[in-house]
Write a structure and sequence with these properties.
Keywords: Membrane, Transmembrane, Transmembrane helix. Helix 5 runs parallel beside helix 9 and helix 8 runs antiparallel to helix 9. About 70% of the residues lie in helices and about 0% in strands. The chain has one domain. With about 300 residues, it is mostly helical.
Amino acid sequence: MHKAGSDESLSYQSRADDRFFVISTAVLPFLAQTAYLFDVFYYHTHSNSSTGYEGLLSSILSVFFYLQYCVPLRSRYVCFFYHFSLWILSEVGTIGHIIFYTKKSDTLHIVLYILWGIVDSIYFACLIYCRVFSKHYGLRVHMPIKQEHLFHFISRLEVILAIFIPVFFDAHLITLTRDNIAFYILFDFFAESYSRFAGVRMKATLYIFVVTVTASVTTEWIHIAKHEKIYDIASLICELVAACFCYLLIVMQFFPSNFISKKKRKDKRSRKTSPKLSVNSVQRSDNHTDDQTSTDTNSGNISYF
């Protein structure tokens, strides 16, 4: 199922003794989707309550939903049903939103969640293709999650939630599940592999992803401050666009051509040091040929470096 020299295989070997970590990475995406379903139906069935709670739990866990692409699963069948099950949960939550907003005749949110459902479906189709049906094409995970990343995510969430919890429990604001918290953590995680990106496509995708996330967060905070609907709409649209580029970046990272190989990285480092060596060689060679002019002027086998 995995090539011996691949990054994913090395990741498996290095984490083979950490069963708790492997189980955690497999279970957390399901917890994230379960929280999403809970928040969807809780909001629409308790919309008249004044608790102010809408999407806090799913917003906290949403980062792990996006990390399902690197869950270490060896069996293709298990991998297929794993991602397919997560897609089903995602679509159930999205359809729930559409049904409830249809009853309220809220055209904006109906169109928004229909687009979310389409984008999620396309992403899951690509994800299943890359992880299940294209093993013979050399596709593999090039940006795997490691143990230290999990603790880094949790520490970042603690800081972010200290800011967002008062917002989520504000009874005057409707704060459904938002992925901006996940995106803010993810682009830091993706940026760790920036030096390995080959070409412009991966780098441009990451830059656009960061810009759209920043725009979404900015307009969201303006909406919180001014309570103007236009900023909320702008934030929701930017968030959807950011999700598209996040999904695109995840799919692109499966392809080896988007990354600099280890051999090329070594050659690049060696080329950085070779000019200095070449200059020294030329100087030594010139000095040597000056000393040997009287004896080697008729020789045709002199090499110049």
